[in-house]
Specification:
Elements lengths: L5 H9 L3 E2 L1 E4 L4 H10 L4 E4 L15 E2 L9 H7 L12
Parallel strand pairs: 2-3
Antiparallel strand pairs: 1-4
Length: 91
């Protein structure tokens, strides 16, 4: 979808109830960084399609596109791991 400005792109994209992935095509690094900062999606790509994520990259959405966890990569280990802290006194 073509838009006239970065603010319009963010408004259109963030107006969705879903937030799995989003992409922005631009030659302006300031727009790319603002997009990354302000876009409500779990996966953001600049100058690339939204499909085909690297397997080691944590993947998951925001809003109605997510269980609020991440799959793949080190995030998957955290999701499936329970941390238990044990203290044993030497006395």
């Amino acid at each position: 979808m073509r838009v006239a400005s970065l603010s319009e792109a963010l408004q259109v994209a963030n107006d969705s109830q879903y937030g799995l992935s989003a992409s922005l095509y631009t030659t302006n690094i300031h727009h790319a960084l603002a997009f990354a900062r302000e876009m409500d999606a779990g996966l953001l790509r600049v100058n690339a399609e939204t499909a085909g994520v690297e397997l080691q990259a944590p993947f998951g959405g925001m809003k109605q596109s997510s269980s609020h966890s991440r799959e793949q990569g080190s995030a998957a280990i955290e999701f499936y791991t329970s941390i238990k802290t044990v203290f044993i006194s030497p006395s």
